[in-house]
Amino acid sequence: MARDRSMENGTVNNRITSEKEFEEVFRYYYRPLFLFAYGYVMDEGEAENIVQSVFTEMWEKRKNLPENLNLRAYLYSSVKHACLRYFKRLQLLDEYKKRQAEALVLSFADDDIEDDRELIALVQKALSQLSEQQRRIVELHVMEGKKYLEIADLLQLSENTVRTHLKRAYKILRENLSCLFPNIFF
């Protein structure tokens, strides 16, 4: 009971030294931290990964944690920073995908005109497999370089909906173009 009260106000007056103590902290904070992470990333799997990695890191660093640590503040701060790192990775991945698409377009310029026509026809055919909404989002994101939030505002959609449409569009394009471009990662 005293341990629960100290966890409620976030203070732990001794270090987490045993697995049992760690399990108590894990059971007490896991669900609220998961919901906190989910509020940021809006993806259950990623929220679980983030919270689990924070607890793993805490366990690995347990001997170096201060004795009078405000555990609640430490955990929430760690989850918040892990969510921000997740968004940074997504942004870097988006930039990489954009560069890959640009490289793909530039590679067309070196081929002779007949090959270009065939490739353009195949790309257009792949694009025709997308819904109108997916095609518009791909155009705005890849060709015009707009961010998810800009596209969401422009098309009056949620940012998560834009992300989902783009993810599904990339999957369709990857399936239709992978035989031509086996190194496409978008």
Automatic annotation (TrEMBL):
<dbReference type="GO" id="GO:0006352">
    <property type="term" value="P:DNA-templated transcription initiation"/>
</dbReference>
<keyword id="KW-0804">Transcription</keyword>
<feature type="domain" description="HTH luxR-type">
    <location>
        <begin position="123"/>
        <end position="186"/>
    </location>
</feature>
<dbReference type="InterPro" id="IPR014327">
    <property type="entry name" value="RNA_pol_sigma70_bacteroid"/>
</dbReference>
<dbReference type="InterPro" id="IPR036388">
    <property type="entry name" value="WH-like_DNA-bd_sf"/>
</dbReference>
<protein>
    <submittedName>
        <fullName>RNA polymerase sigma-70 factor</fullName>
    </submittedName>
</protein>
<keyword id="KW-0731">Sigma factor</keyword>
<dbReference type="GO" id="GO:0003677">
    <property type="term" value="F:DNA binding"/>
</dbReference>
<dbReference type="Pfam" id="PF08281">
    <property type="entry name" value="Sigma70_r4_2"/>
</dbReference>
<dbReference type="InterPro" id="IPR014284">
    <property type="entry name" value="RNA_pol_sigma-70_dom"/>
</dbReference>
<dbReference type="InterPro" id="IPR013324">
    <property type="entry name" value="RNA_pol_sigma_r3/r4-like"/>
</dbReference>
<dbReference type="GO" id="GO:0016987">
    <property type="term" value="F:sigma factor activity"/>
</dbReference>
<keyword id="KW-0805">Transcription regulation</keyword>
<dbReference type="InterPro" id="IPR007627">
    <property type="entry name" value="RNA_pol_sigma70_r2"/>
</dbReference>
<dbReference type="Pfam" id="PF04542">
    <property type="entry name" value="Sigma70_r2"/>
</dbReference>
<dbReference type="InterPro" id="IPR000792">
    <property type="entry name" value="Tscrpt_reg_LuxR_C"/>
</dbReference>
<dbReference type="InterPro" id="IPR013325">
    <property type="entry name" value="RNA_pol_sigma_r2"/>
</dbReference>
<comment type="similarity">
    <text>Belongs to the sigma-70 factor family. ECF subfamily.</text>
</comment>
<dbReference type="InterPro" id="IPR039425">
    <property type="entry name" value="RNA_pol_sigma-70-like"/>
</dbReference>
<dbReference type="InterPro" id="IPR013249">
    <property type="entry name" value="RNA_pol_sigma70_r4_t2"/>
</dbReference>
